[in-house]
Amino acid sequence: MTSAASGAAAPRPVPLLQVRDLGIRHDGSATATPASATFSVARGEVVLLLGPSGAGKSTLALALNGLIPHAVPATIDGTVLVDGLDTRTTPVATLSTHVGMVFQDPDAQLVTGTLLDEVAFGPENLRMPVDEVLARSEDALRRVGLWDRRHENPDRLSGGGRQRLAIACALAMGSPLLVLDEPTANLDPQGIDEVYAALGDLVAAGDRAIVLVEHNLDAATAITDRVVVLDHDGHTVADGTVDDVLRGRADELHAMGVWLPVATIAALRLRAAGWSLDPLPLDPAELRAGLEAAEAPASAVRNSVSTPFSGPQDPISADSAASRLNTEHTAAATEPLIRVRGLRTRRGRTEVLHGVDLDVAAGEFVAIVGANGAGKTTLLQSIAGVVRVPRGQVRVDGVDVARIDLRSLSRRIGFVFQNPEHQFIAHTVFDELAHGLRLQKLPADEVRERTLEVLRRFGLEDKADVHPFLLSGGQKRRLSVGTALVAGAPVLALDEPTFGQDRARADELMHLLRGLSEAGTTILVVTHDMQLVTEYAHRTIVVGDGTILADAPTSEIFADEALLQAAGLRQPPLRRAFAGLTRHPSLAGVTRLADLPHSAARVADVHTEGAS
Amino acid sequence: MTATTFDPYARVVAPGRFLFALNPLAKIAAPLPAIVLLVFARDLATPLAFLALAYAVLLAGARMTGRLVLVLLIAIPAAALLVGLGMSLWADAARVDTSVTILQIGGWTLYGGAVATGMATGVRLAAIVALALIAGISTNGPDLVRSLVQQLRVPYRIGYTALAAFRFVPRFGYELDVIRQAHRVRGAHGGRGPFAAIARWWGYIVPLLAGAIRHAERVALAMDARAFGAHPDRTERHLVPWRARDTVFVLVFWAVSAAILWYFFPWAVPAAS
Questions:
Q1: ipTM surpasses 0.90
Q2: A151 neighbourhood in chain B, CB within 8 Å
Q3: CA distances from B132 to A219, B19, B53, B84 (A)
Q4: Maximum CA pair distance of chain A?
Q5: Distance from B147 to chain A by nearest Cα, in Å?
Q6: Of B61, B68, B118, B186, which is most buried by a Cβ count within 10 Å?
Q7: Is the pLDDT of residue A505 over 90?
């Protein structure tokens, strides 16, 4: 380590990676994204690359090992130098020994039948001697903790395990730089923890530099040395330490649409309310420590006395809906919209749900959570008639879903699959929406009228004649929600609607859902994202081993530490920060941003700008 | 410690079960002439002899799992019998030996000749399946690809890409399930009957292909990023050598096949009559 510093005259060592004024224009696209990115990475350094959705971060990642332009045709301006090699003229195979890549989808990186073969695949391609191949494979697998499972088929690993395997594969290439493009976007909370534990070990060893493109900053900031931020067009606008960029310019980044850790957003709100939180916290632990050290502002005393569920004036609060619902719920308790009694759903020969009882009143926003394989998706699919259920166990809007035909069912409940493409059946957006109405055998005029209305409502008027597959990701999602609701269903069921999506798109969808919820649609959603649950759901159902472990208002669920542990769930970040605060007991019940004391309109601005 | 003895992925060989120690190509090459000839054989004795040969090799050289026993003792004989009976009924009565009458229903007669022809077909198919099983149950995909690359000089870029494509199959199966569910929920089933079924499957193709192409592109990028195809060859960590015993196995098998053919000569009988 000290040998590098031996030459006193040498100014700065040549960086491992140098990106200068990089602009990339995909063939067939009019504008370059990123437009002009500039940064460098030194050996052993961990650089976090941030930017709003659409800034070209993934494109940039593909350019770092020459896949752009060698494998993906694109026009490149500026330069990318890796170890002094120009990626434009050096073949990808040569660059692969300098830059290792880990992509978002763990399944799309598997080629062989066992873990060991998988890791050996790269070194074998480099024609290394067998002993060297095995030595590298063993080392790489040991570093991610998978050596003991080397003979297994990668299919048997969890998502987090497969992503760790992908990291091992990149390590085995022997490259001094690893580029990880959204490595945890497709993972559940446990998988995210696994991957960051592996990356943490890697960073501690200090022998590899890392460029990390990641939205989930809650985990990433802990291992980051430096942060590079691209703006919406892909110009580098910030490049500095975590303290300088994330803490120092948080307001600016937030306004730009860069997703900040929830704890940081909460801290920005508290600051706006007069709290002094310095340095700005980046994770729940820091926020907690900051609050314990801080004096409550004079103005906050008045505000914070109010209990968390009393802020109807807050623009992002669902409280008004919740309180309205509570009254409705008691009034309409005699006839719930959804009534599940003794539900036993089978998949093949195994019984997945073991006698579930559940009532959902009209207008509720219900989250269904649970560990992997707990049966939450099966529960949702049983209610929506996607999987067959025994008769007499599920009633939606007064009818038994096991006895009803799909046409009538689609008038009562709409189901949105994880991947919107799966449910598209027509060749234009218009027909896609009209299909549900034509099934109802409505007159053509009415079909047309109602379709146009839904198109307007979901912002797709100008896309009526476009093929659904040619829409953008966010438009596809809106269309899939539209098709589920077009027949007039009062209930919308969504299975992991934000999985694998970036924050901006997830946010857009959740805003849409809240709008629907406020307009009276009953919403059931299965998700892993606990912060989304706490922000939006009135009520949370915890599923474990095919039964309901708990069913209560969301705030009560997340106040029950023992329950969360038993169900294999994580606490949402804000709960971790605020629960049991000793100095400010009035804040101890906070689980949502909406619960925070709000002083002025300024606070609301901060949030809505960032979310737009 | 040499690399070959260390390699932990080297398959555990079933002790005493010689089929697992043979090169996959040997296991394909040995029964191949017999399989081809059986396609043209018309008698009952030749396929029976080859069926016996295949069973002998499998019993001696394969590991007897419950599934294999079921296949050998029940599935193959039952299928042969079923196909044989079916073929007996199909056989053109004008072209078979009508000297023996087995069954007569009204004006329709089942002749012994028809049964013989039908059974010959059934046993023929059974023999072909049993011969193919010799390679089928004792070879895994990666080894077959390795021997194709190592002995037959199939370009490794093709061989290993095909191997990677195997991984797509379960994924697409799952994806197809989800798409079918989604389309059913949308009420896209469009009625009963073969034409509705075709329309329905056509509807699955677009989302399935869109997903498949995207997935294939991603896999290709991941393979490129790991230097796949960089050099004219790649390290073969797991050698699948062609040994003397492979040559012996193939030659002996061919010799036995020739002997069976010579003894029963299936084309002599019809030629003489």
A1: no
A2: 8-9
A3: 54, 13, 12, 20
A4: 84
A5: 16
A6: B186
A7: no
